[in-house]
Amino acid sequence: MGRTSETVLIILCVLITVKAFEMEIIPADRVVARIGEILILTCNTTGCALPKFSWRTQMDYPLGGKVYNNKTYSTLTMNPVSAENSNDYLCTVICNKEKKEKSVKVELYSFPSNPVIETSTSLVVGETTTVICKIHDVFPSEHLELLLKKDEYILHSKTFEGDVSTKTETKAVAYSFNLTTEDNGKEITCVARLQIDSMDFEPKERSTSLKLNAHFGPQNTFINTFPGNSSMEGHSLKLTCVTESNPPAKVFWRKHLAKENIQHFVKNNVLSIPHAHFTDSGQYICEVINPITNKTEKATMNIVIQAPPKNTSLTVFPSSSVREGESVTISCAAAGVPAVQIILEKKIGDVITALETEDGKYTIDKAQLKDAGKYQCTFTNKFGNRSLDVELDVKVPPQNITVLVYPSENVKEGENITIMCSTYSNPPSQMILRKVNQEKKIILPAINGTFMLYNVTKNDTGRYLLDVFNEVGNNVKVIEIAVVGKLEKPDQIMPLIIAFSCVAAVAVPVVAILIYVSRKAKINGSYSLVKALRLKV
User: Fold this and answer.
1) Minimal CA–CA distance to 326: which of 380, 365, 288?
2) Pairwise CA distance, residues 199 & 7, whole Å
3) How many CB atoms are closer than 10 A to CB 356?
4) Position 185 confidence tier, pLDDT thresholds 50, 70, 90
5) What is the pLDDT of residues 207-266, one digit of tens each?
6) One domain, residues 28 and 98
């Protein structure tokens, strides 16, 4: 009984602490939003583990948004919110057969920009001018009022009451009048008001102003040249475009049949050529445009400049220093009055070779060392000639490397080794020699391509890397060096002494016996080796 009572008490406590099922909508009751923004409605619950959500609108219009359900809340997102979303939204939640509903009213407006003033015709004195004031993307337009004023005087006003709209609209008001000189400088103002007392937003009034200006021209346009339309190269020249216009006309200078814009200094209506070139010859056109009346006029003037070849150039692309195998183009360019003849030549010592160009260009597809040398462009016309030259350098990485080891790769301790290296490259190569797998890294530089190893030992045995390199590339050669020990001569003195002693030990008695026998023979007149031996015994 005791355990049962405790269990019942625990269940009662849990039931008492469980929160009651509740719901709310955020924002609550009413929300004011601007069309084009993002609007999120949230239906939130408490006291329910697995609620079921549903959204609908009054009169079951389309939701116009996306629903996202989470465990305890649901959101309705309108991105962007539009005029069609102006409605009452109802959220329904069911929890364990218990149903609850709440609604929120969405009220929308759109008043995003200032009004725009347009004129239907040019503001020309004596002509009828129509001024139009427009306001874009307004909602709801039935609350809109437009005013058109000249200074503080109201020219026209209009309201749009009863104009029930279901989307954003553009509204306008227009007024026409004859432009006079007294109107010049007066201000036309368009005021737009969107007054909705029940909705809190800012601004509720916008305005735009435009000053009136009486326009005319351009007219009586001509070009004045100083000192004249014919000049020598190097002299200064000024061309002035004269016209009558209000507002001042925009002046555009161009050269007849020119592919590029004029590069001379232009200030207001004056084109200045401080130092005339022969390329400045041609017909110049001054075109003036009144930006308000859209009326245009133009005037022309022929300019003649004569000179020997100028603006000559000799260029090498991509560079006057290239790697072997790269493409390189040599270009000669000039301009002149009259036309300039271009000749490209290659000079190596006293040998001159004429090269065939196309439009002053000569291309070497794959540059070789033989293509290096001086290239000269000569520009000629009847007023003179000029020459330009450039030195083409073709860089070649180390090639055709030869290595000579003296006396050989296999030597005895104490000997010297000479390693001689030669290669073909441009610019000249540098060389270093280092031993492979050596704890202390030692690099030997070359002296005129020669390395010296003095008094070698067995520790000098191993593989050596010969690195030959220049700024273009490098090449590596492997050299195997083997150092063996010295050959020691065997000690032959002692065997000789022993052999000599043995021979002497035998030879001395024999010689003594022979001498004795010989003497006996001389006395007796005969010689017997047996008798002699017997006598000795």
Assistant:
1) 365
2) 58
3) 6
4) confident
5) 999 888 778 778 889 999 988 887 888 888 999 999 988 888 889 888 888 776 676 778
6) yes
Q: Do the Cβ atoms of 308 and 335 come closer than 8 Å?
A: no
For residues 184-222, b (16+ Cβ closer than 10 Å) or e, as one string? eeeebbbbbbbebeeeeeeebebebebebebbbbbeebe
Smallest CA-to-CA distance from 255 within 236, 243, 271 is with 271
Strand (E) or helix (H) holding 11: helix 2-17
Domain that holds residue 412: 397-484
Q: 40-82: per-residue pLDDT in tens?
A: 999 999 999 889 999 998 878 888 889 999 989 999 999 999 8
Asked if pLDDT for residue 414 goes beyond 70, the answer is yes
What pTM was estimated for this model as a whole?
0.40
Q: Which of 36, 75, 174 is nearest to 118 (CA)?
A: 174
pLDDT of 12 above 50 = no
Q: What would the pLDDT profile of 298-352 be if each residue is shown by its tens digit? A: 999 998 887 788 788 999 999 888 998 899 999 999 876 678 889 999 988 888 8
Q: 189 versus 166: which is more confidently predicted?
A: 189
- Within this chain, do residues 228 and 301 fall inside the same structural domain, yes or no? yes
Give the β-pairing of 39-46 and 73-78.
Answer: antiparallel
How many separate domains does the chain show? 5
Q: Which one-letter amino acid corresponds to residue 102?
A: K
Assess contact for 201 and 109: CB atoms under 8 A: yes
For residues 366 and 401, membership in a common domain is answered with no
Q: Are residues 436 and 418 in the same domain?
A: yes
Instruction: List the CATH number of the domain containing 383.
Output: 2.60.40.10
* H/E segment holding residue 284: strand 282-289
DSSP state of 152: T
Other residues' Cβ atoms within 10 Å of the Cβ of residue 368: 11
Boundary residue ending a domain (78, 109, 140): 109
Pairing status of strand 296-317 against strand 328-337: antiparallel
User: 529-536 and 493-524 are packed helices; what angle lies between their axes, rounded to 10 degrees?
Assistant: 100
Same domain, yes or no, for 30 and 95? yes
| 80, 38 Cβ separation under 8 angstroms | yes
Residues 524 and 537: their CA atoms lie apart, in Å, by 20
Out of 211, 237, 268, pick the residue that ends a domain. Answer: 211
Task: Verify that 229 and 280 share a domain, yes or no.
Answer: yes
